[in-house]
Amino acid sequence: MIEEQLKIVEENIQTACKKAGRDRKEVTLIAVSKTKPASMVEEAYACGIRDFGENKVQELVSKEEILPKDIKWHQIGHLQRNKVKYIVDKAALIHSVDSIRLANQIEQDAAKADIICPILLEVNVAREESKFGFLEEEVMEAVEQISHLPHVQIKGLMTIAPFVENPEENRIFFKKLKQLSVDIAGKNIDNVYMNELSMGMTGDYMVAVEEGATFVRVGTGIFGERNYTKTNI
Ligand SMILES: *Cc1c(COP(=O)(O)O)cnc(C)c1O
After folding, report:
1. Is the CB–ligand 1 distance for residue 156 below 6 Å?
2. Full-prediction pTM beyond 0.90?
3. CA 55 to chain centroid
4. Structure confidence by residue, pLDDT tens digits, 132-168
5. Rounded CA gap, 217 and 198, in Å?
6. Closest Cα to atom 11 of ligand 1
């Protein structure tokens, strides 16, 4: 079943790339495996997927320990400062940096681990009360401050768009995130890269690809519905 779902998602990404005149290679599919057992990750891995997304530190760490070492683990969920130390050298990319305090903590733990940690800044473009992330008007100041941290490297921006019936409703938010990244890139700030845009989930990843996503995060569309009452590893 995972193999068939992956085929559908792959076809959809290709269709969206074609429509937007983009090269398929510009887009990385992250299979969001949160709440799903390691056996399902292995199934997707066997189909060639190497990028997986988790939103809980404990789950990322447990899966990282037992699954193949060439997997890139993406921390996509809100990250508490006291948990940074557990994933700083295990996550290929932290998508969800939503405060300067969190960036400072990553700096501290990355320095200790003697690595440079790649991050994305999460932007709440739709200004939803329930969501984490910088507001648009806060991002530039945050980028400037975080750019001075030697063990942290900003690679781009991430957003979680609203849950909508019609994905077209989110196009405006994807466009906004793209524009914001162009504006930041235009400032040519040292130690700041704007090559990555993490946007689009099961309901709206095709629209996100059309608007410039370089990472799409697809869970349900690959692994099926999640059951939050239990976590299998
Ligand atoms: C769970 C999650 C996803 C995947 O959501 P689906 O709708 O199942 O594709 C993507 N991004 C983040 C940040 C998530 O927490």
Report:
1. no
2. yes
3. 10
4. 999 999 999 999 999 999 999 999 999 999 999 999 9
5. 8
6. 217
